[in-house]
Amino acid sequence: MIKIDHMVVPSDEQWEEVIHGCRHPFESYGKSDSKWNRSYDWLDNDHQVVKVTDHFIIGAADMALMQKLANAGDDHGKFMRMLPVMADITASLTFWKQLSTYKVGTTTNAKSTMHSIHKKEFELSDFEYEGMDDEALAVLADVIKELNRCRSMYNVTKDKVYWTSMINLLPESYLQTRTWCGNYQVLRHIYKAREGHRLLNWEVFRAWCTTLPCSSLITGGTDGNESKE
């Protein structure tokens, strides 16, 4: 199980500035074909502008330049570090340990296990259990039962031995929500490195990458979401 929501992608202004920067080495600013599409709302009496809606549209030439630079490697594709992505990710501790491999330019802010582990009773839904066989599920049920015993004892006695027992007994399948902040270059590394991984959550994560604006910069192909919409 993995859930990704509360996503924030690069703004129109960031795309505009990134494209401008990509043209610095070539001084080819005049070849840029991206543009702003503006629509206006007016008051009927004096035509005063009430609202201006700006929308940045990436042109084919600019998209091709970014794709060429991204495919040329990290040095040429360093503009991808300027395209931030943030999202809330709920996943197992196993997944988070693997994601921590990609630490360059990333930050997370997590729900505190240390401070909140004792606040609610443990349930099966707090763990990733899909794909487990019946015997393994029975073991997990026993672990949950023991976690809840330690939780109850800690809440009554405040003895840290029970709190320590909970922390040490917590399975890798325990689900934790973190706000993850990375960028397009990190996502490109993840997308390539985790292809065909045995942990199915990576396929879900890779599929999510294809939904991001101009996702071909991440996937390295031309069959991704080319639009910034």
* Shape by Cα distribution: elongated
Name the strands of the widest sheet in spatial order.
Answer: 1-4-6-5
Helix content: 25-40%
* CATH arch. level architecture of the largest domain: 2-Layer Sandwich
Mean pLDDT: 89
Whole-angstrom Rg: 23 Å
Q: Any overview of this molecule?
A:
The chain is α+β, with helices and mostly antiparallel strands. It folds into two domains: 3-110 and 175-219, 2-Layer Sandwich (Gyrase A, domain 2); 118-169, no CATH class. The protein contains nine helices and six strands, in the order βαββαβαβαααβααα. The model has no long low-confidence stretch (mean pLDDT 89). The protein has a four-stranded antiparallel beta sheet. A two-stranded antiparallel ribbon has the order 2-3. Helix 5 (134-157) packs antiparallel against helix 6 (160-169). The relative contact order is 0.17.
Quick take:
This protein is an alpha+beta fold and 229 residues long. The protein has helices spanning 12-22, 60-71, 93-99, 113-116, 134-157, 160-169, 184-193, 201-209, 216-219; strands at 3-8, 35-42, 49-57, 84-92, 107-110, 175-183. The protein folds into two domains: 3-110 and 175-219, Gyrase A, domain 2 (2-Layer Sandwich); 118-169, no CATH class.
Topology:
Blueprint: E1 3-8, H1 12-22, E2 35-42, E3 49-57, H2 60-71, E4 84-92, H3 93-99, E5 107-110, H4 113-116, H5 134-157, H6 160-169, E6 175-183, H7 184-193, H8 201-209, H9 216-219
Antiparallel strand pairs: 1-4, 2-3, 4-6, 5-6
Helix pairs in contact: 5-6
